[in-house]
Specification:
The chain has 231 residues and is of the alpha/beta class. The protein is 35% helix and 26% strand. The longest helix has 16 residues, at 163-178. The structure holds adenosine-5'-triphosphate. This is ABC-2 type transport system ATP-binding protein.
Length: 231
């Protein structure tokens, strides 16, 4: 059980963005998906979530196909971010939680709990566009997990953030995993993956070139002449 991707391929016309990708993420694991710009991380996530039809292959979560749309079981932090700039933070988070079947009173409690946790309780009544990029990213993370999904997919959750905000997001994500969630996140940076994950894959131009435990992957770096841009 858990997340199983088997031979997933995505072609855009003649271009193969993801080529015959397979991976297994056990329930309760934190899984890192490492790759440079254009490696195919977002395309893979969109296939996993059923937002993009794969050209070949299958994806299952606990043995069933995934439909992200309005599913309470799945959470997603998209790379292109998806907040409504003019909507107030609490209003927006409660609305998104409701779409995923959480009752309003519980959603409100969760919003306040998370805003407290990120030390920004006073943001509840602010419009999203009034917040800094780092604070918008906290709100985006809350939006992805407020409804308590069992599978959480995070596309570059730490990109462009300062170290303090990265630390806050990491600790929130780790706590969420401890509550039982399975988490997959993408990154350009080995240090983030190494710190948080059990297993990982490295994607290069659409192909998995290395996968396994962090320790095995690190041991293989030398042998495989891995060319990953770390920034
Ligand atoms: P980044 O970190 O830059 O987001 P990524 O690893 O997420 O990179 P993808 O966004 O999945 O990479 O893109 C993989 C490749 O597929 C890129 O070459 C991209 O230009 C191409 N691609 C993605 N979406 C489309 C599309 N709709 N049509 C054509 N090509 C696409």
């Amino acid at each position: 059980m858990g997340l199983k991707v088997e031979n997933a391929t995505k072609k855009f016309g003649d271009f193969t963005a993801v080529d015959n990708l397979s991976l297994v993420v056990e329930r309760g694991q934190m899984y890192g998906f490492l790759g440079a710009n254009g490696a195919g991380k977002t395309t893979t996530f969109r296939m996993i979530l059923g937002l993009l039809n794969q050209t070949h292959g299958t994806v299952t979560w606990n043995g069933k196909p995934i439909t992200y749309a309005n599913s309470p079981e799945i959470g997603y932090l998209p790379e292109e971010r998806g907040l409504y700039p003019k909507m107030r933070v609490e209003e927006q988070l409660v609305y998104l939680a409701q779409l995923r079947k959480m009752p309003v009173a519980e959603a409100k409690r969760e919003v306040h709990k998370w805003l407290e946790r990120f030390e920004v309780p006073h943001y509840a009544s602010k419009k999203v566009e009034e917040l800094s990029k780092g604070n918008q990213q906290k709100i985006q993370l809350i939006a992805s997990l407020i409804h308590k999904p069992s599978l959480l997919i995070l596309d570059e959750p730490f990109s462009g953030l300062d170290p303090v905000n990265v630390g806050m997001l990491k600790s929130a994500i780790l706590d969420f995993q401890k509550q039982g969630a399975t988490i997959v996140f993408s990154s350009h940076r080995m240090d983030h993956v190494e710190e948080l994950c059990d297993d990982m894959s490295i994607l290069d131009r659409g192909k998995v070139i290395l996968s396994g435990s962090i320790r095995d992957a690190k041991r293989s770096f030398g042998k495989h002449n891995v060319r990953i841009k770390m920034d």
